[in-house]
Amino acid sequence: MSRAVRIGILGAGTIAAVxxxxxxxxxxxxxxxxxxVNAGRASELARSRDAAVVRDLTGLLRTGLDxxxxxxxxxxxxxxxxxxxxxxxHLYAEKPxxxxxxxxxxxxxxxxxxxVVAASGYMWRSSPIVREAGGLLQGRAVGLVQxxxxxxxxPPLWWRDKSLSGGxxxxxxxxxxxxxxxxxxxxxxxxxxxxxxxxxxxGCSVEDVATATVEFRSGAVGSFCIxxxxxxxxxxxxxxxxxxxxxxNFFPEELTGNCDGLPISHIAEATxxxxxxxxxGAASWFxxxxxxxxxxxxxxxxxxxATFEEGVxxxxxxxxxxxxxSAGGAHVAVEQVQ
Length: 338
Known about the structure:
Rossmann fold; 2 domains; six-stranded parallel β-sheet
């Protein structure tokens, strides 16, 4: 593709604004349309970028797009990816890629049949510290992976309704759960317990504290804990492998640890002209979107930071954690996504 990639954004919320700002820094891409049922919100995002405003996916697909960035809330995503793929349009789907594994599998099947470039919004796979960690782990056996999320609950009212958001594990902790998979491999079974102890807003049905264990198919073990009821906080992953300990901190993006007896220290440099998102990962958001644009231009389905398929596999793991939580901490097998 010699011209700029024509991109539409579906859903005009907070993350859509981040993607729109990042697209402005990618000369090979052009935002041509924004779709949202809230016309005022869509207009605000589109106005300064000379983009069309439409109400829904049907209108978006009529604007002659090459690709769509899907920024819908989790409860509104079912079938959207499949419809985009069947039109032969490339896509970048924000996380989580759904609330139902069956629906996500149907979307994945449509993506595979269409042969389009399809990414999922796990931006930290594009982080320089994650790439550095991957290089250090080459040829080493991983024994332990630990993930921590301590943060505040996102502001949208729908987020506190678990039937709409999927809950803290599926919608919020999913970024770190994805990295557990990246470093530990596919999971065999999990346990998880949780409670709502701190969020007291009316209508809230989301557990605000949870802790889990993960047994990986490689024989490695993992743990994960999350709280979404404070300010500030921590997003981090620790990996223990042969003669190696890595600590990946995403506030800011910094890699520390010890490799073969020597200390490690790597801080991700800020990307010029990239506006921070409100939580760590500004450079990674940009890198993830830039990789997607490059992959679309090259028709390279494997050129994205995180494929849609990886997003479905991470959904399978988070849904297994939710199933264990609902069963009081019982062991739950993780469904495999082929």
